[in-house]
Fold this protein.
Amino acid sequence: MKALITRKVGMTSTIAEDGVVQAITLLSVAEHTVLHHKTVEKDGYTAVQVGTEVAKKLSKSVAGHVKAANVMPKLIREICMTEIPEELNVGAKINADVFSVGDVVSVTGLTKGKGWAGTIRRHNFHRQRKTHGGKGDTRKPGSIGSMYPQHILKGKKMAGQLGHEQITVRNLKVALVDVENHVIGVTGAVPGPRKSIIMLKGAK
């Protein structure tokens, strides 16, 4: 199973033997524990629930759910698969060594939230002229169309929430695997601020 729950540490660079400098993003990987199995017979699909990090306190429902694994995970995620391998029984441990240098991966995370933004920042609109009758409306969106059909069509480019949306970046490569320090480095940029949760999965 090539999938891990990680946290973004930040960016750095590596220098190859031929002198090529490459930007990489470091992801911290705490020890994972297999918590629960989902099966076709019981749940209608096949998946494995894994948990990582340590919570101070769990709700009774979650504590009962993870009791068999004998851990108190802070983060729990479900990873779908066609067949559950034998080594992934409940209570099994997973570390950073499931990935190796050169593996192609996809990363999923929440982008940095930038709050409510206008059309210029959110959709790259042009501003209107400031002189010769601008009337102070220089950053307003202007006309949004005719009266028909008496409502705003879905997807209309207007002001609104910018950022804080789930993004998946595909075809990144694993450039570094440090099992002792619990760190994985992937080439290029990864969505989200530092310390945010990043799902790292092997490319299909």
